[in-house]
Write a structure and sequence with these properties.
It is a single chain. By secondary structure, the protein is α+β, with helices and mostly antiparallel strands. The chain has one domain (29-130): Alpha-Beta Plaits (2-Layer Sandwich), CATH 3.30.70. Helices cover 21% and strands 12% of the residues. The protein contains four helices and four strands. The protein has helices at residues 3-15, 50-54, 92-96, 119-123, and strands at residues 38-40, 60-64, 78-82, 102-104. The strands form two sheets. A two-stranded antiparallel sheet has the order 1-4. The protein has a two-stranded antiparallel sheet with strand order 2-3. The longest helix has 13 residues, at 3-15. It is elongated. It binds iron/sulfur cluster (SF4) (2 copies).
């Protein structure tokens, strides 16, 4: 590349818009089928544990429901809690659930010290949050 064309090339990139997105100052685009945060809807979950057994990342732990939680379809009174920091977002749990109990979202902003588990989202799916 000769000197004039090199200068032209440098100027082109110097005055042009940046190619990269200035995240987090600018939002990023999200693909339609993006797999983000997900949690079990406790109105549908029966506590069968299939999703926890099948999870390849061992990211789902079955936990006891709070005493006051009203869940007529869940006699064992246990529900899946997803660890978002262990999850690899394969959505096997979502597709394998026989009761279509998982709620999916395209939320990817999961970094940080709070809300790294699906517990609160699931408890909020039932009236009164089971508290
Ligand atoms: S979310 Fe589905 S697969 Fe997982 S425990 Fe509940 S009913 Fe079973
Ligand atoms: S999306 Fe995959 S890795 Fe994440 S909890 Fe579900 S089965 Fe496990």
């Amino acid at each position: 590349m000769g000197k004039p064309s090199l200068i032209k090339e440098v100027l082109k990139w110097f005055i042009g818009r940046p190619v990269t997105i200035q995240y987090p100052y600018e939002g990023t685009s999200i693909e339609d089928r993006f797999r983000g945060r997900h949690f079990a809807d406790l109105n549908k979950c029966t506590g069968c544990s299939l999703c926890a057994i099948e999870c390849p990342a061992d990211a789902i732990n079955m936990e006891k429901l709070p005493e006051k939680a009203s869940v007529p379809k869940n006699p064992r009174r246990i529900y899946p809690v997803v660890s978002y920091s262990k999850c690899v977002y394969c959505y096997r749990c979502v597709t394998i659930c026989p009761f279509d109990a998982y709620v999916t979202t395209n939320d990817y902003k999961l970094a940080g010290p709070a809300r790294l588990y699906s517990r609160d989202y699931s408890l909020q799916s039932i009236r009164g949050g089971g508290q």
